[in-house]
Amino acid sequence: MKTYSEVEISEKLKNYKHFKYKEKTLFAEFHFSSYKEGLEFVNKVANIAEEMDHHPDIYLGYRKVSLEIMTHSAGGITELDFEFAKKVEEIK
Fold first, then answer.
1. Do β-strands 64-69 and 57-61 pair in parallel, antiparallel, or remain unpaired?
2. Average pLDDT, stretch 27-52?
3. Does the global pTM surpass 0.90?
4. Residue 74 contacts by C-beta under 8 Å, 6 or more apart in sequence?
5. Cβ–Cβ under 8 Å, residues 67 and 20
């Protein structure tokens, strides 16, 4: 599976509202009006993860959710990561 260079990642991320490249991952932080709303978002992300068989690191805090996406088996960012990020942006 092809991994993208930092230059390629930066170019592709211009089409994404929430995600940025951080510490070798596609990273996004989402804010919510309540803990429950954040948890509901996490459940939607989990459904995407199961559908795609691609599982991000998810951090749930009080009214905040952070996601880190990368393809561990490839050792970097792949097209699968961008597809996942796009689906997340569609639900937010």
1. antiparallel
2. 98
3. yes
4. 1, 2, 3
5. no
